[in-house]
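Hey, can you fold this?
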Amino acid sequence: MNAIPAKVAGVRRIVMTTPPGKDGKISPNLAAAAKIAGVTEIIKAGGAQAVAALAYGTETIAPVDKITGPGNMYVAAAKKLVFGKVDIDMIAGPSEILVVADENANPDHVASDLLSQAEHDPMASSILVTTSEPLIEAVNQALREQTDVLPKKKLLNSPWLLLEPPF
């Protein structure tokens, strides 16, 4: 999300952090996307720990000049704490998204968009505005299917995620 603007700005070292999967590896799709976007270094860490490592450095991680990107409430708090030691983009969160769609929208794409923000934090807001009851039903089905395969399924498997028509 922030690699391309950094690349355009002439940043030579673009570091991305991501928590590894249970196998200790990162997703090959994520690695490929990072390479295409110009990421020069991937660190297998996430959350406030990654923010601290980037700000202060560790035995194996060199500190950076600026930390950007989304995260949950702990990432936001960590960014606030390290501001001054390093520059940050902003203290963001919780994440939110509003999708306005009609009956022609692809329910799988709508569900993916809603989940893209819901997975950040239990306080995130993912909202669909539509007048199409068939779309709501299709998006709910897509949400169930997509949530079943996500690592943060427990966070996403809450009743608020399913949509109900207001009519």
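Oh, and this one too while you're at it.
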Amino acid sequence: MSALGIEVSAAAALSAAPSAPPGAVVYGDPFTEQLLALGARVARTDVTVLIGGPSGTGKEVLARYIHDRSLRAEGRFVAFNCACLPESMVEDLLFGHEKGAFTGATQRFAGFFEQADGGTLFLDEVGEMPLSLQAKLLRVLQEREFTPLGATQPIKTRFRLLAATNRNLKADVQAGRFREDLYYRLNIFPLQLRPLNQRRGDIVPLARAMLKRHAYIAGDLQLDLSAIEALCAYDWPGNVRELENVIQRAMVVADGPTLSAVHLGLDCALPAESQFTAMPWTNQAVSADLVEAPAAAPVSETKAAPSLADRRAMQEAELIMETLKASPTKTMAAERLGISERTLRYKLARLREHGLMAAGV
């Protein structure tokens, strides 16, 4: 539970489609909808927001969403990762320097505190900031002024601060790795993003948005039912970042207008064993025990033509059987198909269930 008595789950869904307007996000899960509603509400204030969540869940996208709906939307959005550079360079980039402040300073540099004046400063991975810089950041937040390196006079600043971390800052405070006073200065309005596997309703909408975003790879592709089932059954330890990598890789190996589970190559449990059942006519993943079995279809004397899904399934079965015949082992066959051996075993079991493969294969 957050300090405000609110726990918001959310957010790897926070990844904007390329055709969406600035600040738009793609989602299909009610938890993400709740998160965005809170984000839009706090955006109308100048309150500092601390965004928490595992790596790859979309913390910067949420920060941009808040900025784009704030009174500072016309100002700059300046993002900086506190973990990517040595301490001396972090200080220089944040505070800036005057010409001649140190060897190599041939001209004045306006630091990020100054660049974000009138706009938003987003400090990503703020928990990685060294203790000495934490004290200087605290002073800037308290006094709303800073002194560039080599300068003699402070400069006033009016930026709105958004911060993000994948660490437990409260535990870091207790361990002496993070200043307690800075923690309470940052943690005014916390928003907590949950991993992708805890809001599965976002997975398929995100995947479809990524297909559009990376259409330059293989054109306009669609997800078939097997791909949707595999996406919803997989655990996504790498969150949205992993999902995007999987989609791009699948687009490279795809040989038609659709992506199937074979192209995704995910090592996941059977969809029937999953807690969720993908519903292809929606962007949601619905609990399996809420899905009623369809009524029995009336018997018809006329044999219906195979559907597009049936034809795709037959083509996949043919590809698998041809690859098995040409491969000495199932391990090699799985490698040639671009899937894990576990996924191959699952597909073989499905083929045997439908009488498309002998039981001993």
